[in-house]
Specification:
Strand order of the largest sheet: 3-4-5-7
Mean pLDDT: 87
Shape: globular
Structural class: alpha+beta
Number of helices: 3
Distance between the termini: 30 Å
Number of strands: 7
Strand content: 25-35%
């Protein structure tokens, strides 16, 4: 995944990912990020901390990402202003809401 940081820089991180299930209707995967693989030297400490905290988080990921593309995300996803990552299976949360 890659993020555009507030100062205009971009940072990229690669995670080992556990694919939990595929949702054909929305052509996306439910995944869990297991650990960070990329050396994040040169990334400011605050952004590094936010990226490292993604290990163990759940997310819906578009199917095309399985081909190794970098998902371009905004800094707001790292800070939680845009809901992208979940602490538990988001399908369970969606089922409780409906």
């Amino acid at each position: 995944m890659g993020w555009k940081l507030p100062e205009g820089n971009r940072v990229k991180a690669t995670f080992d990912t556990q694919f939990v299930s595929y949702e054909a209707g929305k052509d996306r995967w439910v995944v869990v990020f297991e650990r960070n693989l990329t050396d994040l030297t040169g990334v400011e400490a605050h952004a590094r901390t936010l990226i490292e905290a993604l290990a163990g988080k759940w997310a819906y990921v578009p199917n095309e990402a399985r081909d190794g593309i970098t998902l371009p995300l905004k800094y707001e996803t790292l800070t939680g202003q845009i809901r992208f990552y979940y602490t538990a299976d988001p399908r369970a949360q969606a089922a409780q809401a409906s």
